Amino acid sequence: TSAQIGVTGLAVMGRNLARNFARNGYTVALHNRTAAKTRALVEEFGDEGEFIATETAKDFVAALERPRRLVIMVKAGEPTDAVIKEFAPLMEPGDMIIDGGNAHFADTRRRERELREQDIHFVGTGVSGGEEGALLGPSIMPGGSPESYASLGPMLEKISAKAEDGAPCVTHVGPDGAGHFVKMVHNGIEYADMQLIAEAYQLLRDVAGYSPAQIADIFRTWNTGRLDSYLIEITAEVLKHVDAATGKPFVDVVQDQAEQKGTGRWTVQIALDLGVPVSGIAEAVFARSLSGHTELRAASKDLAGPTARPLGEAEAGAFADQVEQALYASKIVSYTQGFHEVAAGSEEYGWDIDLGAVAAIWRGGCIIRAAFLDRIRAAYDTRADLPSLLSDKTFAQEIGAAQDDWRAVLVAATRQGVPTPGFSAALAYYDALRADRLPAALTQGQRDFFGAHTYRRTDREGSFHTLWGADRSEVQA
Ligand code: NBP
């Protein structure tokens, strides 16, 4: 017998993905650099389905039916290149190498190009949902050639998460690095979502005076409405949790320094290159790095702040409702920015990404899964070339209805000295987009003054320069 699919790299993600394929009726060839892990998987889970355990690269490749489908699930970066180098020479034209790790899309583009010379399909594939998603159904974002998706798609559709309407959370995102690009932006949006939720928590705690357990209840209520999402749900769980050792709220015994693995940073770096303002995601990445600067924070402890004036009980309830509005409005802005980046990447690399389909496959399995994504899909279904999510009528109306409360929350935050980089950046983006005139005109004047960079006029075509150092007359540039 031969295997329909093979998985090499059997750490948490690879082992669960392999089990997921087997549980769905596929014969799965297994391989890992350290063979003990392969044996352990078969010993523990061998009865879940058909596995073919192999130890050498040659046996692994030989165990796969043609065209071969070989999934790499190793640490991203050099290990992925090492594994490709090991297996590619053993593969034949038409075979597929699927990289399910968190690769940078530029690496994926390079690998795809190199392997194409050998007629091997390299399918950079974003996989979201963590350990549990890999086993029970992740959201899957494959790039690569249409031919590879024709062969691989049905299998991925089977093992993927399903949205509430039953649709599989997988689509062929686009060629070469499109899948990993979209996975990167997914993670960037995840950073922003988490930051916004964190700010809502901080406001409910420091301005409204609620305890973590009370805030957990507030989040639970929010989770029954338009904010219904995995991240809000687990936030309530984390806030409710009490530390067994001290009896204190768990959130109070954890060090307040957030770590990161890099996909949020990539999202911002690439956005800078593409000229896309993803200020909410950037603030989320910066908020994590700021939290880690413990010496800087310690040295700043005595800086002056306002006198805290916590709200009374009656005011607190109304404030919580306003925070819900601010959170929802800011969330609309982060998704607007994230989808702008996907659109810009698609344009830059000629991927022709269907933004509605991306929203649809994020409805289940992944970390940012939420009822909200169905509405984003609907917005793009109504108009595929929507210039921005904010230009969708429904979202525009909702954010318009939320804006008074959104501003009130930021006034309170500013007065009480609670930092809200995410909420504030989102509102600034909203107001800047709305603005009739931006001070960019003044910026252009300054640039022309010191660097003769020229400017365009509102009333005439062409580029102009003012002779600032002379008689200040205007010349055509
Ligand atoms: P790790 O990222 O911890 O990688 C461990 C695996 O890589 C092991 O199988 C290890 O083999 C193998 N490996 C390494 Br390290 N260097 C190698 C090399 N030079 N040659 C061959 N194999 C090598 O595993 P993971 O957490 O399961 O994640 C796998 C991939 O999935 C990563 O790219 C990750 O970013 C991505 N991802 C993870 C999550 C998550 O929630 N963890 C979610 C989505 C995507 P060994 O057993 O011999 O050491």
Automatic annotation (TrEMBL):
Q: How does it assemble?
A: Homodimer.
Pathways per UniProt: Carbohydrate degradation; pentose phosphate pathway; D-ribulose 5-phosphate from D-glucose 6-phosphate (oxidative stage): step 3/3
Keywords from the named record: Gluconate utilization, NADP, Oxidoreductase, Pentose shunt
Superkingdom: Bacteria
Organism for this UniProt entry: Streptomyces rectiviolaceus
The record's family statement is:
Belongs to the 6-phosphogluconate dehydrogenase family.
Which reaction is recorded as catalysed by this protein?
6-phospho-D-gluconate + NADP(+) = D-ribulose 5-phosphate + CO2 + NADPH
EC code(s) of this entry:
1.1.1.44
Q: Which PROSITE patterns match?
A: 6PGD
Q: What is this protein called?
A: 6-phosphogluconate dehydrogenase, decarboxylating
